[in-house]
Amino acid sequence: MSAPADSSVEWPHPPEHVGATNWAEVRRHNPELVDRLAVNMYRSDDVADRAAADLLAMPGGWRLLDHVLTDVHRYGTEAPESLQRLLAPLIDPPSWYSPEVVDAGARAWWRFGSVQAITLYQSLMYGYQSPGLSRPLAMTGRLTSGTSDRLAETGRWIVTATAPGGMAPGARGWAESVRIRMVHALVRRHLLTAQGWDAQSWGVPINQSYSALTISGGFLVLPLIVAADLGISYSSAEYEAIAHQWRWIGFVMGVPDELLPHNYREAQEMFDVAGRFEIDPDGNSRTLTDALLHDGYSLDALPAPAARALKAVATPVLASLFASISTRWVPPNAARGMGLRRTPAHHLVVLARQAVRMREATRTLGLLGSEDRLVDRELRFVVRNLGRFSTKQTPLRPEAAA
Hints:
- By secondary structure, this protein is mostly helical.
- The protein has one domain (26-46, 98-167, 183-388).
- The protein contains 21 helices and no strands.
- The chain has helices spanning 23-29, 31-40, 46-57, 61-70, 72-75, 81-91, 99-110, 113-116, 120-128, 131-139, 147-162, 172-194, 199-202, 208-229, 236-252, 264-276, 283-295, 304-326, 332-337, 348-364, 371-386.
- α3 (46-57) packs across α6.
- The two termini are 31 Å apart.
- Residues 1-6 and 388-402 have low confidence and may be disordered.
């Protein structure tokens, strides 16, 4: 199937074949939301698809994208009309966007940044549960290759997108989010034109529904559920600020407004409805999970012999530990399909909870310094552990994306 200018596909029938065996049952309780999800499984990010096609047709088109994202106001007029159309609502945001609330969400998120970084594993596992989300990785040959790099890339994007100031139009997190959106358009094009993707049976690759569920479920609600289990407390206002922050991130990433939760309650509802679908993970899901557990970290900083020896000893222990702890937040049926087995090690979260609560009490007493200093310290700690990376909130330079 070739990729048309509009790569959306008409919704031909209820998508039980997408993976859920109880679609009709879940729909009876939430018909409006489920129908929206169903229809949008067959819808693409058409604006990004057209912009990507135009850039590919231009000599040096992808370098032009780097220049545009370096300084959108200076280089925007050089972009093809399709890219200008994509960028216009991202440079001049909709009326609901509040940079102050986005930054309030960022500060709340990064007050516990080093703990929130742990939830990245769970965010990826959230996507691995569904054959529809794991299939693009399988068909592009990224099931087991580059797992630690993929984890680090995702981690770096989350740092840039959630850091205070990071999602202001033209800032680094904003630019990275636009670039990822364009990469998704390239992957869609490749799957539809060269890989024999069956859009009628599987929906559009990286479709609007899966993008919305990834943002609202995998990167917003699930990390906050894990955070609560670890003993992190947020106020109602902080929950709403974090939800607003991810609404804006989702908007920049191309999720349509009709699928973006407008508050934390709506995000939680979408997460809960998605969790009620009975989806059996396939072989790809298990392979991705196994690769994440065994290869989702790098020891490149150590001499090669030491790295090999340490990995041989530590990997089985860490994989078993992470797999057991993950069963706290993965539905039982999905956990079995993904090869996750619960052991008494999952109770380590209870021990960690006590340490987190003690840290929060210390913070409340003012012993950890001001909130700004705490956020900066947490950012620096996470960035050091992600490798060479800068947290400066400046526009992304072309050479940095090479």
